[in-house]
């Protein structure tokens, strides 16, 4: 009887900036996959890595540059910059405490610690900014990706507060987003809008990063939940959310994705309220000022149901009205939603990326 290979342990799972790839940190190194269409494309196992593997992987789009944080003493406080073309480390950034997250864009490396965020130039690794935050154990932070000065969102110094740093205007904006601790942050590629969820997990809010105004409030559900991920579509028309309740939600956004200077609500077509699955601001819209907020928050227009208590990340596919979902259990899903009727999404693909059909 042939020996079965040891099961793979995933230490970290992350989508890249445009959701076109995802990467896993494992006990031996890291792996990279195309997310749409699904395809395993890279596997790196490091022989000299006896310390417990790779606990964090951060990609720069689909380039050869990848930032890694390894497990173990004196390793989890270092960001290693890996060049896959040259098959070597180009440099490292060391800190006094554990690295919680790394966010990349073409000109910056952003490193998140438990109560601090450091911003570096990518070219020379020069420190350009450092920001103090409230305790941030999951490394919440997001950065804009379009050309031009960076916009960054991270927790502020108070519970429920989000700090937006605009490096073009050199201004900081503090947004009181929630009454409880911030649990998830996502930003549009152009940095104009930021979405947040709290540790309560019932409401998701979208804010204008320029003036901090609330643009839209959406309700994931009535029960408490841990929000695992939030993601905007590239055109800021949709927002997706995953949580420990097992349901992935897609919400329709009513933000103006046109002129960069405005950042305001636009008069989007109203959802088809005759459909029971439509995006429900609910039939009670006409007495919004009278009814509790539960009835006036907008509900998701499309849903996909998964096993509960598995951590899933969600992003948007290359084709319109599609999403990709990846889980720490090795599951990959591609789903399609109907932008007019909403309701249950249609599953297009499903794979176990821990068990590829062909070695890579």
Topology diagram in text:
Layout: E1 10-15, E2 21-26, E3 29-35, E4 38-45, E5 54-59, E6 65-70, E7 78-83, E8 88-94, E9 101-105, E10 108-112, E11 116-121, E12 127-132, E13 142-143, E14 151-155, E15 161-166, E16 171-176, E17 182-187, E18 193-198, E19 203-208, E20 214-219, E21 227-232, E22 238-243, E23 247-252, H1 293-296, E24 298-299, E25 302-305, E26 312-316, E27 322-327, E28 331-336, E29 343-344, E30 346-352
User: Helix share of residues?
Assistant: under 10%
The number of helical segments is 1
Q: Quote the beta fraction.
A: over 45%
* Largest sheet, spatial ordering of strands: 17-18-19-20-24
Question: Main sheet, how many strands, which sense, barrel?
Answer: 5 strands, mixed
Number of strands: 30
Question: What Rg is obtained from the alpha carbons, in whole angstroms?
Answer: 20 Å
Q: What form results from the Cα inertia axes? A: globular
Written description of the protein model:
The chain is mainly beta and 360 residues long. The chain has one helix and 30 strands. It has one helix spanning 293-296; strands at residues 10-15, 21-26, 29-35, 38-45, 54-59, 65-70, 78-83, 88-94, 101-105, 108-112, 116-121, 127-132, 142-143, 151-155, 161-166, 171-176, 182-187, 193-198, 203-208, 214-219, 227-232, 238-243, 247-252, 298-299, 302-305, 312-316, 322-327, 331-336, 343-344, 346-352. It has a five-stranded mixed β-sheet with strand order 17-18-19-20-24. A hairpin with a 4-residue loop joins strand 18 (193-198) and strand 19. The model is unreliable at 259-263 and 265-295 (pLDDT under 50).
């Amino acid at each position: 009887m042939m020996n079965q290979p040891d099961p793979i342990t995933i230490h970290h799972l992350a989508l890249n900036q445009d959701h076109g790839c995802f990467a896993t940190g494992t006990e031996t190194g890291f792996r990279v996959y195309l997310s749409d269409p699904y395809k395993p494309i890279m596997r790196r196992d490091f022989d000299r890595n006896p310390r417990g593997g790779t606990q964090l992987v951060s990609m720069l789009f689909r380039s050869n540059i990848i930032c890694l944080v390894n497990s173990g003493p004196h390793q989890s406080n270092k960001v290693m910059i890996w060049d896959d073309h040259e098959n070597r480390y180009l440099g490292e950034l060391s800190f006094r405490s554990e690295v919680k997250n790394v966010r990349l864009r073409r000109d910056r490396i952003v490193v998140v610690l438990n109560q601090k965020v450091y911003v570096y130039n990518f070219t020379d690794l020069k420190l350009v900014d450092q920001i103090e935050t409230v305790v941030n154990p999951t490394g919440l932070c997001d950065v804009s990706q379009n050309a031009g000065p960076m916009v960054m969102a991270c927790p502020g110094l108070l519970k429920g507060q989000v700090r937006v740093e605009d490096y073009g205007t050199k201004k900081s904006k503090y947004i009181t987003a929630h009454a409880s601790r911030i649990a998830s942050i996502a930003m549009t590629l152009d940095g104009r809008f930021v979405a947040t969820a709290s540790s309560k997990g019932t409401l998701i809010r979208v804010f204008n990063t320029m003036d901090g105004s609330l643009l839209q409030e959406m309700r994931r559900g009535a029960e408490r939940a841990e929000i695992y991920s939030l993601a905007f579509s590239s055109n800021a028309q949709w927002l997706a959310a995953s949580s420990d309740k097992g349901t992935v939600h897609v919400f329709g956004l009513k933000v103006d994705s046109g002129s960069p200077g405005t950042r305001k609500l636009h008069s989007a077509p109203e959802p088809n309220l005759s459909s029971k699955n439509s995006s429900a601001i609910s039939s009670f819209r006409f007495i919004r000022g009278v009814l509790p907020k539960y009835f006036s928050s907008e509900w998701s227009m499309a849903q996909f149901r998964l096993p509960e208590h598995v951590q899933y990340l969600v992003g948007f596919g290359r084709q319109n009205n599609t999403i990709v979902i990846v889980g720490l259990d090795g599951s990959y899903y591609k789903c399609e939603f109907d932008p007019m009727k909403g309701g249950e999404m249609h599953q297009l693909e499903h794979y176990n990326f821990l068990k590829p059909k062909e070695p890579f």
